[in-house]
Amino acid sequence: MTTKGSAGAGFITIGDGVYLSVHQRASVSAPNGITNTTIVPAISPDVIIIFGWMGAQLRHLYNYTREYAKLFPSATRILVRCHPSFFWSSQKSKHTRLFPVVEALEALGCIQYNTLTKETAPLQYDQPRILTHVFSNGGSLQLVTLNQVLSKRVPQVNAISFTSVIIFDSCPAVGTFRTLGLAFTLSIRSRLLRISALTFVYTLYILTRLRYLLFGTKILMEQLRESLFNPQILPWTNSRTPRLYLYSRKDELVPWQQVQNHSEVSRSKGLNVRTELFENSAHVAHMRAEPDRYWSSVMKIWNDACVPVESE
User: Fold this and answer.
1) For residues 94 and 84, which has the higher predicted lDDT (pLDDT)?
2) CA atoms within 13 A on the CB side of 98
3) pTM for the complete prediction?
């Protein structure tokens, strides 16, 4: 794993849009505005992986990493940004972008190798505790891509005793013609560039729809939605791994009904699902609207994940 300088807020750059912040020795404190002492963690995660939403600026993502640093000061944080180009990049390019995350996980002991064969060994050692926080469809796509890269390097493991949580913030959803345009142009201020981007996105959308009608090939968002039903979406997860969906009725980019449908279908498939439906918060803005409720939900599902589960 190579480093490429400081990225601010305690992070170093280890890849294109990939940042690492090693743990600090400090006392646990609640995030800003939270006074509920019941959210104090029973056990801290060793690693927190945060997949940002498409086009998210670092200063916005740091709002979450700072709060995680307060809750879990001993945890190492891996932060991954999602550039809009990630959606139409080749599979090889996607894998290359996520490879620094794999290298970081290896360096942190989340992936171990047989020293004689140089092959990945079953995870039977002191297994790390991992919390994964996914924002919007951009973060979801990166999560699925990371799994594709890891699946080639890591064998299936017995995840029953592996403490892990996945949090889905404002995702997933296939979206609509209108919401896809909004998602790809929201951060573009220039009217001319916005029109150009909309033309590109809508053309691509129409072409993928035609491809589906002619050849039955599903569009990327539908493939993404189905991929997230996989119990082992990461090598250390299974059907018992708690999943938390955070979403809002006022989200203009990701229809809340689609997120709720995904959570319900996931539950029907035997996955361990929790939901938190907000009434008035915008897309990826639930934490800003109701910080107490937001972080309490995060802490509750993490503490629940720390309760030992007996093997069947």
Assistant:
1) 94
2) 26
3) 0.83
Largest interatomic CA distance in the chain: 60
Residue 69: how many CB atoms within 10 A of its CB?
Answer: 22
For residue range 211-229, list pLDDT tens digits in order. Answer: 667 776 677 788 999 999 9
Q: Where are the beta strands (DSSP E) in 55-95?
A: 76-82
Q: Write down the domain spans for the chain.
A: 6-174+219-305
- The class of domain 6-174+219-305 in CATH terms is alpha beta
Q: How confident is the model at residue 196 (pLDDT cuts 50, 70, 90)?
A: confident
Q: Which candidate, 131, 2, 15, 3, places its Cα nearest to that of 76?
A: 131
Specify the pLDDT at position 215. Answer: 72
In a 10 Å sphere around its CB, with 0-12 CB exposed, 13-18 middle and 19+ buried, how is residue 109 labelled? middle
pLDDT in the model for residue 25? 45
Pairwise CA distance, residues 105 & 117, whole Å: 20
> DSSP letters along 123-165, please?
S-SSPPPEEEEEEHHHHHHHHHHHHHHHHTTS-----TT--EE
Start-to-end CA distance of the chain, whole Å, equals 38
